[in-house]
Amino acid sequence: xxxxxxxxxxxxxxxxxxxxxxxxxxxxxxxxxxxxxxxxxxxxxxxxxxxxxxxxxxxxxxxxxxxxxxxxxxxxxxxxxxxxxxxxxxxxxxxxxxxxxxxxxxxxxxxxxxxxxxxxxxxxxxxxxxxxxxxxxxxxxxxxxxxxxxxxxxxxxxxxxxxxxxxxxxxxxxxxxxxxxxxxxxxxxxxxxxxxxxxxxxxxxxxxxxxxxxxxxxxxxxxxxxxxxxxxxxxxxxxxxxxxxxxxxxxxxxxxxxxxxxxxxxxxxxxxxxxxxxxxxxxxxxxxxxxxxxxxxxxxxxxxxxxxxxxxxxxxxxxxxxxxxxxxxxxxxxxxxxxxxxxxxxxxxxxxxxxxxxxxxxxxxxxxxxxxxx
Length: 374
Known about the structure:
By secondary structure, the protein is of the alpha/beta class. It folds into two domains: about 5-70 and about 210-370, Alkaline Phosphatase, subunit A; about 80-205, no CATH class. It is built from 13 helices and 14 strands. A hairpin with a 4-residue loop joins strand 11 (about 330) and strand 12.
């Protein structure tokens, strides 16, 4: 029996004039999603636990059944696992975003693709610092590892760039200890040389562990259920590595709107034949959000409906289940995430379902799929 959870990252949004007063979801949905709406249970999931920021790592872990006290405080170690980086027990690893700062000192663009010559200059300068390594992971992202930096974790304060667009850049620089001062100084010096471009560190983490997916979801016979992940975004891939979930490489896919959705659908269908549960994570809507482009977001959701949701629904057998949802809401208006409950549709082939299940803890998402329909 297939159990497939489709996560369209950051899909939930507000309405925009450029979409004739519709949300990207309502503007983009087509035949397959409309079919699910007419034949599914609906509800809402609380995917951001109290005290946490709305973040892909936190929300995905919650939806996989990981309790708040087991969620790592930063996402960078999980992303390092996705890249196969070796992180020592005394090391700290952080996200390092390219950003743009306006003349009045505001964070104008929290996720920017700096010109390649500037990006290379900045990475080279960071790599030249003793004990620092820098690993590019996307157009605006890098992972920065600092040997021996774990001792600074507890007192290091940083801020998510995409949650603080138009905030005072100086207030968003790392602070709290000696390491923070060094990082902040580098960001200031870089801005002075390459305005409007510089870097901003956040998401600090150290080496840690997560529970295995199979240990969280037991079958009636006492055996652990198996799980798989389809994604090209570092956080979900790293989560799969840490939780013992199969995560295939898909060469033609990306974590953005230029991804090969047909290949992701095919991989999901194949894995659903071998595993008890498959999470399909699609990063495109969130990346369009960070570019503040609701039209791009809506068009990508339409592509996902046709190229992804439709083929998956067509592949299902009697009793197979699909949940369609997102990990967190994300607003093109602000380029950031919000932590309100996310809408979901729960479909089971062979049954015409209807009704509202209400608002559920995010940790119940996988259990709902294994437990069957209400």
